[in-house]
Design a protein that fits this description.
Layout lengths: L6 H5 L8 H6 L4 H10 L14 E3 L4 E4 L4 E5 L8 H13 L6 E5 L9 H9 L9 H14 L13 H28 L7 E3 L2 E4 L2 E4 H8 L28 H6 L15 E6 L4 E6 L2 H5 L4 E6 L3 E6 L2 H11 L2 E5 L5 H13 L12 H5 L24 E6 L2 E6 L4 H12 L6 E5 L13 H4 L1
Parallel strand pairs: 3-4, 14-15
Antiparallel strand pairs: 1-2, 2-3, 5-6, 6-7, 8-11, 9-12, 10-11, 13-14
Helix pairs in contact: 4-7, 7-8
Length: about 450
């Protein structure tokens, strides 16, 4: 699909040179080299969908013959602005007209793996001090191998800019070079003397639209190295650009997972059991049957769903069911949690993580003022109701869901259904908030 994604670009790091000296340093055993290469994590070429007239010019962008530019965003849009940020990076490095830029979610592929987040998460549980560099590099390689494929597509940890700025800019720079090369072929000039800005490639008084060059550019081989602009010299640097999702969020046309509508679609409302070891005890199916529009009920170990022709009927039927649950052991209770926390703080059964200096010596002979501050935990509950839409299709399943880990969501749903991941298609939807809730896939599984 794309010829811009060299192995170095896609892995985000240089592969080891496979020369005789390095092979000998590595041990000299051909079997050992073959084994290591066999376990090396593969980076697949993303299966990018293209519309008529579009050309793929890199892992992160497509250009249409009408001049529109579509940026493929690997990060979930949860209100934090990832769609606009990634698109801004592409447009600035490419020299695009911001008015022609649009965004769509990137397809599931290891080409969009967030290795930085994997590395930082592992760093929280892996000691770094005193660990030899070679061992740390092996640990990073192992984490990448174990998370090979689309499972490494992750949004979180404030890593979107830090992880993707470099690969996104490099991809856009190579695309800009290809456009300049295509224009230079027509003008019979050196492509490096051409400029790209506002959606045009120019050379003196000559200029051509990106859309007029996209088809020819897609047939060319890119330069060996991405000709990045000097820092701060991009045409869009310093401009306060409008967010791409702002107009549709203002007029209400911005689609979330709960806005998806399909032919012959039914709606479900689910009552979950209490947190803890709880199970569904009973519910009144006959009462639900008296609600107009009610179709059926789906019972699970710790939840029950009412299915109806519309969401209002589903909610009314669920309330009419009046499901009750039984719990084993003590249920979660805020008062109990607070009481135990205070007892732990006042007692000596806690474990001090860091002990440095002597507080008693510093306070000796001084008046001590103290106060207790209690802050409630941040609930992972956003204004948007967690919603998923699923459509079976001849043994396959299409799923619309707001997820920070679309590859892992696909794997979880496939495991729940007992089918191959290749039978599950996930359409990553924007989410109405973050706080990590979209890392969970229980709603998609339900």
């Amino acid at each position: 699909m794309t010829r811009l994604g060299t192995m170095k670009d896609r892995l985000g790091q240089a592969l080891p040179d496979m020369n005789r000296r390095n092979i000998l340093i590595g041990g000299g055993a051909a079997a050992g080299l073959a084994l290591a290469w066999g376990f090396w994590p593969r980076v697949d070429t993303p299966a990018i969908n293209i519309a008529p007239g579009e050309q793929v010019l890199g892992t992160f962008l497509k250009i249409g013959t009408d001049g529109h530019i579509t940026v493929l965003c690997p990060q979930a849009e949860l209100g934090q602005g990832s769609y606009t940020m990634i698109a801004h990076l592409v447009a600035d490095e490419l020299g695009a007209d911001w008015r022609t830029v649009a965004v769509e979610p990137a397809p599931l592929s290891s080409a969009y793996a967030n290795r930085l987040l994997l590395d930082e998460d592992a760093g929280q549980i892996t000691p770094r001090m005193g660990v030899p560099d070679a061992l740390a590099e092996f640990g990073g390689w192992r984490r990448l191998m174990l998370n090979d494929g689309a499972s490494a597509m992750l949004t979180g940890g404030s890593t979107s800019m830090r992880m993707f700025e470099a690969p996104v800019r490099e991809s856009a720079a190579l695309a800009r070079a290809l456009l300049c090369m295509a224009a230079a072929d027509r003008w019979d000039v050196d492509w490096q003397s051409c400029e790209a800005a506002d959606g045009f490639v120019t050379h003196g008084q000559q200029r051509l639209r990106f859309g007029d060059l996209a088809s020819a550019a897609a047939l060319l081989d890119p330069p060996s190295f991405a000709p990045l602009r000097a820092p701060g010299t991009g045409p869009l640097v310093g401009q306060s650009l409008p967010r791409l999702d702002l107009p549709s969020k203002i007029d209400g046309s911005f689609n979330f997972a709960g806005d998806v509508r399909l032919p012959d679609m039914v709606f479900a409302s689910i009552r979950q059991g209490p947190i803890g070891d709880s199970s569904l005890k009973r519910y009144d199916l006959a009462a639900a049957g008296r609600v107009p529009g009610f179709i059926s009920a789906v019972r699970h170990g710790r939840w029950v769903a009412a299915i109806a022709t519309n969401s209002w009927a589903a909610q009314r039927a669920l309330n009419a069911m009046n499901p009750t649950f039984s719990s084993i052991g003590q249920r979660a209770d805020s008062a109990v949690i607070d009481r135990r926390l205070k007892a732990a703080m006042a007692g000596n059964d806690g474990a001090r993580i860091i002990d440095e200096g002597a507080i008693a010596d510093a306070f000796d002979g001084r008046t001590v003022l103290s106060a207790d501050y209690v802050i409630a935990p941040a609930l992972h509950a956003q204004l948007e109701t967690r919603t998923a839409t699923a459509a079976p299709d001849n043994g396959r399943m299409r799923l619309w869901f707001a997820t920070q880990a679309p590859g892992r969501c696909r794997a979880a749903v496939a495991a729940a259904l007992g089918v191959s991941e290749s039978n599950i298609t996930v359409f990553p939807m924007p989410g109405g908030g973050n706080s990590g809730a979209s890392m969970a896939h229980d709603i998609a599984i339900q």
